[in-house]
């Protein structure tokens, strides 16, 4: 409530000559009131009191209605019956905190088991060597050097193929894990060459060493082979794997690692091995391309830090 300041106005003065003194009559003695006048005054007083009580001039104490304006009770205000105010609306209840929702499991894409059969099965028989070199892989032993060559016209990224070969041969479970040799890919000065060739070219190259890559019981398109100084990977197997791997949901990458390590193992002097027992990992020198023989597909020569093999096979 606004505060009202006291009125500070003064009666204006007039700048003029001093007024003439007023002659006042001599004071007369006040007459002594009579009894009649006292009675009249008493009646007037009673009437005034009655009127004051009727209109509530006198403060009757705090208003029972409890009106509170500007911090004090209204003096002499008539009692007002306030309507009962509705209860203050409660704020709407907050929504309950939702329970933590388990994130949807990330869907792992199904492994690629094979690629389409839209690829050449024959080629010119000419190869392009990957010119780059890898680091020396392995901790101890003599360095065995290899180069990578891809047949022209098969639309394969030769550099990517070479990097895959490096990763496979230099893997912690690969041929360098035994500590008896190291490996390095070079462009020249090599000990052997890893070729990626169409099936017809593979057939022709392997035949020069008296090896047949097609026969009853072998997958369509033939298998890979190894000749002295030559590891020949069949493009048909590189893209399609083999039916019993596909039926067992073995990823294509696993087949590729296996066939590389198998044929390079021959170049390093290892012979064939058989399945050591049902449901055991197949030795990498087992002819897994033809049959698993009750074993489980395995691409590594040192899957547990020790060379894994089975009974020798002629």
Question: What would you note in describing this structure?
Answer:
By secondary structure, the protein is of the alpha/beta class. It has a domain at 127-241 and 258-267. The protein contains six helices and six strands; from the N terminus they run H-E-E-H-E-E-H-E-E-H-H-H. Strands 1, 2, 3, 4, 5 and 6 form a six-stranded mixed β-sheet that branches.
Write the layout of secondary structure elements.
Blueprint: H1 35-55, E1 127-129, E2 143-151, H2 158-169, E3 182-185, E4 192-197, H3 199-207, E5 225-227, E6 230-234, H4 235-240, H5 243-247, H6 252-267
Low-confidence stretches: 1-31, 41-78
Q: For the CA atoms, what is the radius of gyration?
A: 57 Å
* Main sheet makeup: 6 strands, mixed
**Average pLDDT reading:** 80
**Count of helical segments?**
6
> How far is the N terminus from the C terminus?
113 Å
Number of strands: 6
SSE order, one letter for each helix or strand: HEEHEEHEEHHH
Query: Roughly what percent helix?
Result: 10-25%
Inertia-based shape: globular
Give a concise summary.
The chain is an alpha/beta fold and 314 residues long.
Features:
six-stranded mixed β-sheet; 314 residues; single chain; alpha/beta
């Amino acid at each position: 409530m606004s505060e009202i300041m006291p009125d500070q106005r003064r009666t204006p003065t007039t700048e003029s000559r001093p007024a003439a003194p007023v002659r006042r009559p001599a004071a007369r003695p006040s007459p002594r009131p009579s009894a009649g006048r006292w009675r009249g005054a008493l009646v007037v007083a009673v009437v005034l009191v009655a009127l004051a009580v009727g209109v509530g001039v006198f403060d009757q104490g705090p208003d029972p209605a409890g009106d509170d304006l500007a911090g004090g009770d209204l003096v002499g205000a008539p009692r007002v019956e306030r309507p009962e105010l509705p209860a203050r609306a409660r704020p709407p209840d907050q929504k309950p905190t939702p329970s933590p929702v388990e994130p949807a499991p990330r869907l792992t894409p199904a492994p690629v088991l094979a690629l389409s059969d839209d690829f050449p099965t024959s080629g010119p028989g000419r190869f392009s060597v990957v010119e780059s070199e890898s680091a020396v892989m392995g901790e101890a032993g003599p360095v065995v050097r290899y180069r990578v060559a891809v047949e022209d016209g098969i639309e394969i990224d030769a550099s990517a193929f070479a990097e895959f070969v490096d990763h496979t041969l230099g893997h912690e479970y690969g041929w360098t894990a035994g500590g008896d040799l190291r490996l390095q890919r070079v462009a020249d000065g090599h000990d052997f060459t890893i070729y990626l060739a169409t099936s017809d070219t593979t057939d022709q190259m392997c035949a020069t060493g008296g090896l047949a890559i097609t026969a009853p019981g072998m997958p369509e398109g033939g298998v890979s082979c190894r000749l002295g100084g030559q590891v020949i990977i069949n493009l048909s197997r590189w893209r399609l794997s083999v039916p019993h791997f596909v039926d067992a949901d073995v990823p294509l990458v696993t087949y590729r690692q296996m066939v590389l390590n198998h044929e390079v193992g021959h170049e390093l002097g290892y012979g064939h091995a058989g399945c050591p027992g049902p449901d055991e990992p197949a030795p990498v020198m087992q002819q897994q391309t033809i049959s698993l023989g009750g074993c489980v597909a395995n691409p590594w020569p040192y899957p547990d830090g020790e060379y894994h093999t089975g009974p020798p096979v002629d």
